[in-house]
Amino acid sequence: MNKNQTGGLHLPPSASGPGYSRRDALRLGAIGVGGLAIGGSLLAACGSDDSSTGASGGAKESIKAHWVYIGPPDDQGWTQRHHEGYLAAVAAMGDKMVSGYTPNIGFDAGTTQLFQQLVDDKNDIIFMNTEYSGLMSEVADANLQVKWAETNGHHFTENCFGYYLAHETTAYLLGVAAAHLADNGRIGYIGAFPTATAYNDVNGMLLGARSVNPEATVETVMVSTFYDPQAAAQASDALLNNGVDFLFGVMDEPTFLNLAEEAGVWTGYWNGDFPEQAPNMYTAGFDIGHGLGPFYTQQCQAVLNGSWVAPSVATLLDTPLGDWGPKVPQDVKDAVAAADAALKSGDLHVYEGPLMDNKGNQVLAAGETIDSLGAYEINWAVEGVSGLE
Amino acid sequence: MSTYRLERRLEVDTKKQALTRVAGALIAMAVAGLVLLLTGRNSFKILFDGLEAIFGSQRGLEGVALRAIPILMTALAVALSLRMKIWNIGSGGQFLMGAFAALGVGIHVNGPGWLVLILMALAALVAGSLWILVPALARAYWDVNEIITTLLLNFVAAQLVTWASIGFWRDTEAAVIQSTKRVPYRLAELPGTDSLTIALLVPFVIALVLFWIFRSTTIGFEIDTIGGNARAAAFAGINVRRRILLVMLCTGAIAGLGGMLQLSAPGARQLGPGYEAQFGLTGFIVAALAGGAMMGVLVGGTFIASMFFAGLVLQTKGLSVYIIFGIYGLILTGVALGEMAARYRLVRVGDAVSSERVAS
Asked: Do B267 and A118 touch (CB under 8 A)?
């Protein structure tokens, strides 16, 4: 794992040397010579101008792909799951793909420069594991030869689309479990930004919980970041001190699981299966890694074949509930399995009218339902959720 | 038989000091390279990749310039206050408030682009100086330490921007995470470039003006005098309070204008969680290392921007971000030590009086 913690470049087996390829060696030589002259800029630029892969259509000999991560690839959560998907794609593509990844990329203008750099490096496709939206779209729109796939993205053009994890049903199932386990029916939720992700989390949890305990509530703290262990810890403390009996959140890393374990409060995770983070109090997590590897592989293969077309709507990957923690009682598992079967058969819907939001408006009339693609655009929280409007 | 000891110089030669800083940076890079080599990494390749990132293409040079603009603006703001021995730790907050005010004008005022941009710049200047008004008054009239007051206002500014970006100015169409609407106006492009605007000229003009003020005007002399000894300056008839107010409001205005200029940078057309990106802190480091010298700020700010840009590119080539931060830290430490080194000299113990003392 050491290589994965620090590295970011995967070369196909045919490339020479552990650290760099022949092309890099040539480039190195060019720069060395150029540097001895004045600045060396022109020579270096000529020396590195290679690997032109032709027009964007049509099959290719090999492709170049890059992943941009919001956190480190060993974060025990979100980015680690994506990184496993990346490694699966690297293994499946073999010597047909040169790939790399860049971790710890935040939401500032430097990120736009990073995307420009990846374009200049002649990547064919770029994956981003959290929504960079405005920081990415300028570069994407100006470089149609590059394909862009953005987690939770809402920028749909001929070369850019969003993919995500269908999780409102998963949240519903976790809500069923939470209501069985939380004595007082109060669920705490640590959110990042007021986006559809957060609404589906709290709505799914609450609706699932209310199917068991009609008095259940969800109390929310929003921290404006996905990856900040300190902010997550503060929010956990606030919710736990406030008396919630189940703790959940959209944090990329497991700090809040550790704190729930210490407090003896049941907890669940967005980035499933990390029971070791809360050995006694872990229920289950969203199995987000379930479809990522096959999805990445399929995308890279399509670019290689020349058959890649940007979907016009979001690609929503199946996200089942992950493995149960060791201490979860059997009756809870049975209740969740029953709800899962009802959801799968179509007898039960997460969003089914009549439904009120937490501002007192009716958002669904009796009999109306919302499917996963509808949920991807949702922007209201159901009645019973506090802290998120 | 003789032993040596370090002795503080009475007069520091600024030219020599510039050399020792460069030497400090080079020694630090050599140390970093050695550590990388010993841990099995090819430090020469890293160095060449870094140099190629900067000098290898026009894009690289433009990338450095884009990074440098906001850093230079906050650094100039801090450098101005340092001339009076005032520590403005709040340039990040003033930067944000300048951007906040400029964005408010940009998304609400319709008109010819040049006019709206001028209004945006004015709004940014006013907002930046208003954001430091209370610390300035408190410092000038009640001698309240400005380090704490300016620092804490950074957090207030960040919260205000968060509120705007998820609340009253939120972009409900394009943005997924929190972000305000985009400003439809952009500064004029710099001819011959892909991504640069005339914003690049602003820090250089400001640096030249400040340089001239401190070199050739009475007010510059007064500010330096207050920085040397405020009590003596007051005895000499300088109105210290008014000068403190003037300098602190100007430093806020410069940082605020930096926030407005950044709105024309790629990817920064809207306010969001990463808009400030530690420009205040970075500018502070640059100004402190330059010791308040305006030309030093230009050199140091450009250097640090090159380092950051090269680091970003190296990250895409597989170098760990932690190693990159380690290298940044080593180089900055090297520069700081170089600055200190020029203040001392090695003397042989036993000489009754050193030659420099005789000379002075």
From this structure: no
